[in-house]
Write a structure and sequence with these properties.
By secondary structure, this protein is an alpha/beta fold. It has two domains: 1-15 and 175-229, no CATH class; 17-168, SPOUT methyltransferase, trefoil knot domain (Alpha/beta knot). It contains seven helices and seven strands; from the N terminus they run H-E-H-E-E-H-E-E-E-H-E-H-H-H. It has a seven-stranded parallel β-sheet with strand order 3-2-1-6-4-7-5, sandwiched between helices. Strand 1, helix 2 (30-43) and strand 2 (48-51) form a beta-alpha-beta unit. Helix 1 packs across helix 6 and helix 2 runs parallel beside helix 5. The radius of gyration is 19 Å and the shape is globular. The two termini are 29 Å apart.
Length: 229
């Protein structure tokens, strides 16, 4: 790994937002799921969530993602309702993109709070059940003949509003990740082929130098723990 690559990884991880995420409710088109992940990477989402389509699995990532799936892992859930409940229990406000009597303009929400944006498949949207258990329903005002945006476009619109608010609040100015997690991810991103070998052996990751080189085993180790979110 070159020093330039190492510095890029450190800069990106320093801006990752563990308190901003998305939940994709049975998004069944690979290009949509991939485009959403690409936007997630662009705004600093650390991890995404998804409910696979009924009787299926998560769509295969397409070229649309721009390899974003390597940088934004996706956690799978059995149902949207259980995922919403789990995220709310973890301190997230869940905002369902859903038209209802309690819907509000997506720009009126405080995205500096721990936030999950719940998105549904383009054809049928977020399920009524999931929308009901969400903290709020949000909509993007439409002034034309069509009633909705493509799900990946809607995701980008909302996530960049979240980014705008978080930039104004200074949430990108200092790392939001804990030191141990930041070190763990730095090693895994910088050495994706080497990291699994350490995990298989149950060994701690070695420390890295200021230029990203692996130091000797005598150096202070980085614990290879997996965060739960």
């Amino acid at each position: 790994m070159t020093p330039e690559r190492f510095e890029k990884i450190r800069q990106v991880l320093a801006r990752r937002q563990p308190t901003l995420t998305v939940l994709m409710d049975e998004v069944n088109k690979p290009h949509n799921l991939s485009a959403i992940l690409r936007t997630c990477d662009a705004v600093g989402v650390l991890q995404a969530h998804a409910v696979p389509p009924e009787h299926g699995s998560l769509p295969t990532f397409s070229a649309t993602s721009g390899s974003a799936e390597k940088w934004v892992p996706v956690r799978s859930h059995d149902t949207a309702v259980s995922a919403v409940n789990a995220l709310r229990a973890g301190g997230f406000q869940v905002l369902a993109t859903h038209l209802s009597q309690r819907s509000v303009d997506y720009r009126s929400v405080d995205y500096t709070r721990p936030t999950c944006v719940l998105l549904g498949a383009e054809k049928w949207g977020v399920s009524d059940e999931a929308a009901r258990v969400a903290d709020a329903n949000i909509v993007i005002p439409m002034l034309g003949m069509v009633q909705s945006l493509n799900v990946s476009v809607a995701a980008a619109t909302i996530l960049f509003e979240a980014q705008r608010q978080r930039l104004a609040a200074g949430l990108y100015e200092s790392p939001q990740l804990e030191i141990a997690e930041l070190a763990r991810l730095t090693f895994e991103w910088g050495y994706p082929d080497l990291a699994p070998l350490y995990r298989e052996r149950g060994e701690a990751y070695p420390a890295l130098s200021e230029t990203g080189q692996v130091l000797s085993a005598a150096s202070t180790p980085v614990i290879a723990s997996t965060p739960v979110r």
